[in-house]
Design brief:
Layout lengths: L9 H9 L4 E6 L5 H8 L3 E8 L2 H13 L5 E5 L13 E7 L1 H9 L10 E6 L3 H10 L2 E11 L2 E10 L6 H6 L9 H22 L2 H28 L4
The structure holds S-adenosylmethionine.
Amino acid sequence: MGIKELELSPRLRVLAGWVCPGARVADVGTDHAYLPVWLSLHGSVASAIASDLRKGPLERARETGRTYGVENVDFRLCDGLSGISPEEADTIVIAGMGGENISAILAAAPWTADGGHTLLLQPMTRAEDLRLFLMEHGYRISREALVWDRGILYPCMQVVAGEETLTLGQLHGGAKLCHDPLGEQYIIAKIIRLQSAVAGLNRAGDEASRRKADSLREILTALLSMREEWRCANSPRN
Ligand SMILES: C[S@@+](CC[C@H](N)C(=O)[O-])C[C@H]1O[C@@H](n2cnc3c(N)ncnc32)[C@H](O)[C@@H]1O
């Protein structure tokens, strides 16, 4: 029996679609190495590095390479980008981790903001922390898209070196999601979560909870007004 065709998860499919033909890719936190092996099988990259912090995932990555007979993926055991030099890759993928972990990996490799690299980032949580980090450290979100994966809506980001100022609404609701077909659902889910958190904090009634509720209300107001802006921008009259 032949081996099953390698299929990417919806998250990784979006990122794979953003990799330019002939790119030199490094996939940081690769786990099974599905993305670099898929890219290599489809002949869409000039080179691919698959790295992971832990031995178990890297062994799984090597196993995927063996299963699909891919010999040109370079497997590396290292923390973040510590074992990858700037000249080895022009496209860096960091997917399937929390926004704070992705930020920490980029903070330890400031060369990723040198203008010679495109980053494809996909935070599983705390996307707002990642957007804030990018804004404060010389990066610009050039493209953003939402994707459903296993019942959860995730943002995917294409990031380059640059300057941009994001509003509070954009930090929480997305920098480039105004015309995304899933944008409305993403922003409404955030509004509902914030409303319920504010209600909980109001019930607690102590000073610290009141202060926290005030800061969440500020985000809520920013998201509600951004939702109106998106509606106007997407109205057929505009
Ligand atoms: C959930 S998997 C994501 C796999 C794949 N990138 C995806 O999106 O489907 C997260 C992987 O990131 C690895 N990881 C976490 N922190 C890391 C770091 N600082 N450097 C390299 N890999 C890391 C973990 O060991 C794990 O294998």
